[in-house]
Amino acid sequence: MNNKKLRITALIGLAAILVGSIMGIIGWYGNDSKLDTLSFDRGFHIEKYVTRQGYDVKDVKNLELDTHDADITIKRGNEFGLKTRLLSQDRVTVKRDGNHVTVKNQGFEVKNIVTGYDQPTITVTLPVDYPLDELNIKVQGGTLDISKLKVEQKTEIQNIDGGIILNHVDFKNGSIRNDGSGTRLEGGNFQQMEFINNAPFRAIKTNFMGDNTVKVQDNRVVLTQPQSNLAVDLTAHDGNVDVQNQKDVQTKRHDDGDFSTDKTTFGQDDENKLHVIATNGDIHVSDTEDY
């Protein structure tokens, strides 16, 4: 019996030493940033980041992105460029058909143990003042950040489980859908666009031309310094509409039991209109970003 107890005690001690060693290795590598991703599957496997560039994206006019688990940046620069920083297991395909370029990655799968992880990135660079004809983007599990891009014919964007940031862009004829962390417009021009959000929506000093619609579910809409004379109608189902420093504001409220609707209109521009519909959320219009 004593020998059996000693064997059991020794096995328990050996297991404790093994677990402690494993945790120590993970902590040491994680704290010193020496491992990007560590997984356990038939032993330890190290996933390192790989940076690649030199893809053929020159003279692209129709750009299509279908990405998973990566932050996407589209920006201006001196020349065309595509740079990817992804985990080594993630596969990237870049296909060209004339001036139509398609960029896809599969994403990655990390098993059991992860340490020292940061978000992979895909960066597209276009020359200054170079417009696209069409832009088609689908992002899953990453933030989309676009600056100073002009699309002359059609724009389609969808982000699942991530944010959308559009800085001084010029988009027309399409839709932008966000099911993740919110949409933010800073400046820019939008013509004949529809925004569909299951996340907060904010537009700051943004020009809306033609007929545009914003729909938000279970979140708020904030418009800061909308363009002068823009014809705006705001409808909040089970929410409130708050409009500050606007002329000729008209508001109607309808209550139907536990359900209420606030409808507010202002602005006189017959050519440029913005329709905002919030369900279970508030709408706020002001001259400052304090809200």
Beta-strand portion reads over 45%
- SSE string, helices as H and strands as E: HEEEEEEEEEEEEEEEEEEEEEEEEEE
How big is the Rg?
A: 25 Å
Summarize the main sheet. Answer: 13 strands, mixed
Shape: globular
Number of strands: 26
Number of helices: 1
What is the terminal separation in angstroms? 73 Å
Helical fraction: 10-25%
| Low-confidence region ranges | 28-36, 38-42
Protein name: DUF4097 domain-containing protein
Structural overview:
Helices cover 10% and strands 54% of the residues. The protein has 1 helix and 26 strands. Strand 23 and strand 24 form a beta hairpin. It has a domain at 3-33. Strands 4, 7, 8, 10, 12, 14, 16, 18, 19, 21, 23, 24 and 25 form a 13-stranded mixed β-sheet that branches. The protein has an 11-stranded mixed β-sheet with strand order 3-6-9-5-11-13-15-17-20-26-22, with no helix packed on it. The longest helix has 30 residues, at 2-31. The model is unreliable at 28-36 and 38-42 (pLDDT under 50). The protein has 291 residues and is mainly β. InterPro entries: Toastrack_DUF4097 (IPR025164). This is DUF4097 domain-containing protein. Residues 242-264 are annotated as: Disordered.
